[in-house]
UniProtKB/TrEMBL annotation:
Name of the molecule in the record: Mitochondrial glutamate carrier 2
Membrane topology classification: Multi-pass membrane protein
Cellular compartments annotated: Mitochondrion inner membrane
Pfam family, one: Mito_carr
């Protein structure tokens, strides 16, 4: 049941003279739901995320040559070179930090939606977008260091394969060793490399995703009953795909700016505009 329909139901059940019962916000269930959703999501789609990172980081050579010709080609080469578990390189960092990241994101969105809802129970689209954007801004505290460490682990195989083809060897760091090195060299700010690009991606994503999901999901409400699981699932897929496609250019910029170990011919970037250019 949507928040609006819940408020109307409370009004209908109220006796004459009674004040309408105000909707309540419970934080703990939101955090638990977000944590479970995050872990399940990472476990299912992580190999695709690894391929995405490697495709985003590869650069086209002077003669148009590419290390990976397609998503399927990247899957095949990664599996052949690193095996099944190589597809989950860096997943430990994600599983560890995805719980607070998703919990903050989903709980913050619900919290902001709760406080931005009008007294009559309605939530204008502008307020929905604002709630989503604020939730995206809250999550970058966890997302930025998580993405920074995850990207290094995911892209290590691509850089190592490129170095091997050139007769070179590179050292592979664990997430723990990399964290210690960054803290020793740059302090806590070393873990927040690319924070501006991360914020631009996550805020934009949440501004699109959360309102779109709420609108699509509410279309499945019948006779005051919550929509069935399959409807919510398809609503999430549609909203997530639309939001991800919309912010993909900024995601490419974020990935390239956060990559520390570059392959041959790949450059470091000074700013978002430098990377875009």
């Amino acid at each position: 049941m949507s928040q609006e329909s819940g408020v109307l139901e409370n009004i209908k059940m109220s006796k004459p003279g009674d004040k309408p019962k105000q909707p309540e916000f419970h934080l703990l269930p939101k955090i638990i739901n977000g944590s479970i959703a995050g872990i399940v999501g990472v476990s299912v789609v992580f190999p695709i995320d690894l391929v995405k990172t490697r495709l985003q980081n590869q650069t086209i050579g002077p003669k148009g040559e590419k290390q990976y010709s397609s998503m399927l080609d990247c899957f095949k080469k990664t599996y052949h070179a690193e095996g099944y578990f190589g597809m989950y390189r860096g997943s430990g960092v994600n599983i560890l930090l995805i719980t607070p990241e998703k919990a903050i994101k989903l709980a913050a969105n619900d919290l902001f939606r709760f406080y931005l809802t009008r007294p009559d129970g309605t939530l204008p689209i502008v307020n929905q977008m604002l709630a989503g954007g604020l939730a995206g801004a809250c999550q970058i505290v966890i997302t930025t260091p998580m993405e920074l460490l995850k990207i290094q682990m995911q892209d290590a195989g691509r850089v190592a394969a490129q170095a091997k083809a050139e007769g070179r060897k590179i050292e592979r760091l664990t997430a723990t060793a990399l964290t210690k090195r960054l803290l020793a060299e740059r302090g806590i700010l070393g873990l927040y490399r690319g924070v501006t690009a991360t914020a631009a991606r996550d805020v934009s994503f949440s501004v699109i995703y959360f309102p779109l999901f709420a609108i699509l999901n509410d279309m499945g409400v019948k006779d005051g009953q919550a929509p069935p699981f399959w409807w919510s699932f398809l609503s999430g897929c549609a909203a997530g795909s639309t939001a991800a496609l919309s912010v993909n250019p900024m995601d490419v910029v974020k990935t390239r700016m956060q990559t520390l170990s570059k392959g041959s011919g790949e450059k470091q970037y000074n700013s978002i505009m430098d990377c875009v250019t």
